[in-house]
Amino acid sequence: MENNPYQAPSASVAEHTEEVLAGRGERFLAALIDTILLCVILVPAMFATGYFEQAARGEVGIGKVVAYGFAGFLVFLIVQGWPLAQSAQTWGKKVLGIRIALLDGTQPTFGTLILKRYLPVQVAGAIPVLGLVLSMINVLLIFRSDRRCGHDLIAGTQVLKN
């Protein structure tokens, strides 16, 4: 066959699948599912240990707040640790078909997820008064064009559709 100098190039182009960002509504519903799941465990435990009674009497000091915050994070790790380690998804994200990914689309390590994405938000949220403001800012950053919350910016992650 003779080469035609006027023929269009015939090189094959590799198929490129573009990653699609998860919607704000999907992320909200996933977070709501995760929150309800943790509350089903934590609220009865807090009643059983007398936390709410002590809080009503004003007997909850900083030490107890820190201890319950630590315990809450441990419960989070127990409940969400396996799906996060396996697929970078919480149970809520699994239900909604979305996942946490690094900016290049790959799966972050479990250490990155816990130490950069979840722990800083937990610690910041525990700061009296300022923690509430920081938590609100963290969540409201989702209204940026890249739909990344503060914890995504810290960890270098994004949330994508599967």
From TrEMBL:
Which compartments is it annotated to reside in?
Cell membrane
Which UniProt keyword terms apply here? Cell membrane, Membrane, Transmembrane, Transmembrane helix
Q: Which organism is it from?
A: Noviluteimonas gilva
Q: Domain of life, per the record?
A: Bacteria
Q: Is-annotated flag, keyword Transmembrane?
A: yes
**Pfam families given for it?**
RDD
List each copy of the RDD domain by range: 22-156
What's the protein name?
A: RDD family protein
Q: Name the membrane topology term.
A: Multi-pass membrane protein
